[in-house]
Write a structure and sequence with these properties.
Helix content: 25-40%
CATH class of one domain: Alpha Beta
Radius of gyration: 22 Å
Number of helices: 18
Strand content: 15-25%
CATH superfamily of one domain: FAD/NAD(P)-binding domain
Distance between the termini: 36 Å
CATH architecture of one domain: 3-Layer(bba) Sandwich
Structural class: alpha+beta
C-alpha cells in the first residue's frame, strides 16, 4: 500500500499538529501519522484508573500557549473547533512545614497580601518583578516565536531594549541568584524556587534567572490554565482544523523508517509496511534519539550524529494518578483551600537539592518536592459527578545505580512516600477517599510514550548547551535536518518543551517559506 500527500507528518504531538494545521491551511494536503491509538503525545487525556476518570497523562497546564500568536491572534480559529480554556482561582496553593502557607490568586493585590504575611519587603519585590517582566515580555515572546536565524538573537533583541543590559544579566543568572537577592524570607524564597522549577530546570542552574520572572508572571496573568475536558482538547481541536482543510490524521501508525531516494527524504514507511510518500516535505516530531535510527548514518553526517549522541535528558517526573471521592483540602485559618494546583517545596535548601539528586541518580524520599494537580476542582467534566482526578508529581532520576529497570521494584515505595507527603498537608485524603491509582515512574513515562526519552517529558534538557541555536544540534536549529526534504519540530527543537505551540509554529514558518509561501499570507485575518 502506498499513498501520496504533499506533506507527511510523523507524530501527532501538539507541536506537529500545530505545524500541520498551518501547512494544511496553506493548501497543502497533509497526513499525520501517530504511533499510539490516540493523538496528542504529552497533551493526551486517558482513562488511566477507572472508567469515566479522564486523567492528563503529562501536561495539564497550558500556560505558555496563552501568549502564543496561535491562540492570542486566533490564527487557526481553534475555538471554532471546540477548544475552550478554564482559568482557575486560586492559581496555586503552597503549604509549608511550619503550618503556614502562601496562596497565589489571580488578583495581584491579593497575592501580594499573601507575600506580606511573611515580609512586606518580599511583597513589594514580587509586585516589582511582575511589573518589570511585563515591560520586557514582548522581547522574550519574539525570541520564542521566531525560528532561529529568521530574526535577531535574544542577545540582539535585549540590546535594543532600554533595560536590556539588566535583563541580559538576569537571563544569564540562575533563578536562585535572582530569588536570593530579591526575597528575604525563606517561605517566599521556597515559593519562588518552586515556581521557577515548573519547566523542570533546576533553579540553581545558570540561564534560569529569567524563569524566576516569567513563570510567576505567566501564572499571575493566566492562572493554572487548562483546556476544558482535558489536555487532549488541544490536539483534538488541531486535528479538526487539519481535517477541515483537507488533511488526514491517522492513529496506530508507528513510523518504522524514512524513505530516502536520491539523497532526499520522500516519505515514511510504517510498521505495517504501508508507505506514505511526500511530494514536498516530511515533517517529524519523533525524538531525535529515535529519528536517527530510521535512516542510514551516512545520510545524517558525522556532525549531526555526534550532536545527537551528546543529547542529554532533562529532569524526569514520577507521577501517580488517583481516582478519588474528594479533592485534597489544605487547612487554613478560616477553613480549607481546594485548588487545581498545589506545591510542596519544603524549603529553599530542599528545592536546591533536586537538580543535584537528579544528576547523581539519587532517589530521595525525605520531604519530597511535589506538584499536586486536581483538575476537577475547576473542571468537573473530567470525572463522574462528585468524583475527582488527582495527579501527584514528584521529580526523580531515570538513571539509577542499579539501572532504570530498578524502577519496577521501587515505584510503589516512592509513590507511597509522595502520598504521605501530600497527606501531611491535606489530611483529608485518607485511604477510604482513594478509589484507584496508577503509577508512572520515569521508566513508565518512557514506556507510555517513546518521545519521553529517559523519562523527560520536555524532549530533553533545556540547559544553555541545548537551547536556542544549539537545539537540537549546533548548525541544525532551523527545523531543517541534514537530509533534504526532512524537517523537525516538537520539544527537541527551539524553544523546547512545555505546551507553547512555539516549536510547531516556528517549524511551519520555515517549511512554508521553503514551499514558496509564508505564514503571514496563510493566516490572513487569523481565520
Amino acid at each position: 500500500m502506498s499513498e501520496t500527500f504533499d506533506v507527511v507528518v510523523a507524530g501527532a504531538g501538539h507541536n506537529s499538529l500545530v505545524a500541520a494545521a498551518y501547512v494544511a491551511k496553506a493548501g497543502f494536503r497533509c497526513v499525520v501519522l501517530e504511533a499510539r491509538d490516540r493523538i496528542g503525545g504529552d497533551t493526551a487525556t486517558e482513562e488511566l484508573t477507572l472508567p469515566g476518570f479522564r486523567h492528563d497523562t503529562c501536561s495539564t497546564a497550558h500556560n505558555l500557549i496563552q501568549t502564543s500568536p496561535t491562540l492570542r491572534a486566533n490564527e487557526l480559529g481553534l475555538s471554532d473547533f471546540g477548544l475552550e480554556y478554564v482559568y482557575p482561582d486560586p492559581v496555586a496553593h503552597v503549604p509549608f512545614p511550619d503550618g503556614t502557607w502562601l496562596t497565589q490568586w489571580r488578583d495581584l493585590d491579593r497575592t501580594c497580601e499573601e507575600f506580606a504575611k511573611f515580609s512586606p519587603h518580599d511583597a513589594a519585590a514580587f509586585r516589582r518583578m511582575m511589573t518589570e517582566y511585563d515591560a520586557v515580555k514582548s522581547v522574550f515572546g519574539a525570541y520564542r516565536y521566531t525560528p532561529i536565524g529568521f530574526g535577531p538573537s535574544l542577545e540582539a533583541l535585549l540590546e535594543q531594549h532600554p533595560d536590556g543590559a539588566r535583563w541580559a544579566r538576569r537571563q544569564a543568572q540562575s533563578g536562585w541568584e535572582v530569588i536570593r537577592d530579591a526575597f528575604h524570607d525563606w517561605h517566599t524564597r521556597a515559593f519562588m524556587l518552586w515556581m521557577t522549577f515548573m519547566t523542570m530546570q533546576p533553579p540553581d542552574r545558570p540561564g534560569t534567572g529569567w524563569l524566576a520572572y516569567s513563570i510567576p508572571y505567566g501564572r499571575q496573568a493566566h492562572s493554572w490554565t487548562m483546556p476544558r475536558g482535558g489536555s487532549a482538547a488541544l490536539p483534538n481541536a488541531l486535528a479538526r482544523c487539519i481535517e477541515a482543510h483537507g488533511g488526514v490524521v491517522l492513529t496506530s501508525k508507528p513510523v518504522a523508517r524514512l524513505l530516502i531516494e536520491g539523497g532526499r527524504c520522500v516519505g515514511v514507511e510504517t510498521d505495517d509496511g504501508a508507505a506514505y510518500r511526500a511530494r514536498r516535505a516530511v515533517l517529524s516530531t519523533i525524538h531525535i534519539k529515535h529519528l536517527v535510527e530510521m535512516a542510514p548514518s551516512d545520510a545524517w553526517g558525522e556532525e549531526f550524529i555526534a550532536g545527537v549522541d551528546s543529547w542529554q535528558a532533562g529532569v524526569s517526573m514520577f507521577v501517580t494518578h488517583f481516582a478519588t471521592t474528594e479533592p485534597p483540602r489544605f487547612p487554613v485559618h478560616n477553613g480549607a483551600v481546594t485548588t487545581v494546583a498545589a506545591g510542596m517545596p519544603g524549603s529553599p535548601d530542599r528545592m536546591l537539592r533536586v537538580g543535584n539528586e537528579f544528576h547523581r541518580g539519587i532517589v530521595a524520599l525525605d520531604d519530597p518536592v511535589l506538584l499536586v494537580v486536581c483538575a476537577t476542582v475547576a473542571d468537573p467534566s473530567r470525572a463522574p459527578a462528585g468524583r475527582h482526578t488527582l495527579k501527584v508529581i514528584g521529580f526523580q532520576p531515570y538513571e539509577l545505580p542499579e539501572g532504570p529497570a530498578h524502577w519496577d521494584e521501587i515505584e510503589a515505595s516512592v509513590s507511597a512516600a509522595n502520598l504521605a507527603q501530600l497527606r501531611r498537608y491535606a489530611p483529608n485524603l485518607s485511604d477510604a477517599k482513594i478509589l484507584d491509582a496508577r503509577i508512572e515512574s520515569p521508566l513508565g513515562l518512557e514506556r507510555l510514550n517513546r518521545h519521553n526519552w529517559h523519562g523527560s517529558c520536555h524532549g530533553g534538557d533545556m540547559s544553555p548547551a541545548q537551547s536556542g541555536r544549539l537545539r537540537p544540534v549546533p548548525t541544525w536549529a532551523q527545523h531543517r535536518l541534514p537530509i533534504p526534504g526532512l524537517y523537525q519540530t516538537g520539544a527537541t527543537t527551539h524553544p523546547g518543551g512545555s505546551v507553547s505551540a512555539a516549536p510547531g509554529r516556528n517549524a511551519a514558518m520555515v517549511l512554508l517559506a521553503d514551499l514558496g509561501t509564508n505564514l503571514a499570507d496563510v493566516i490572513g485575518d487569523g481565520r
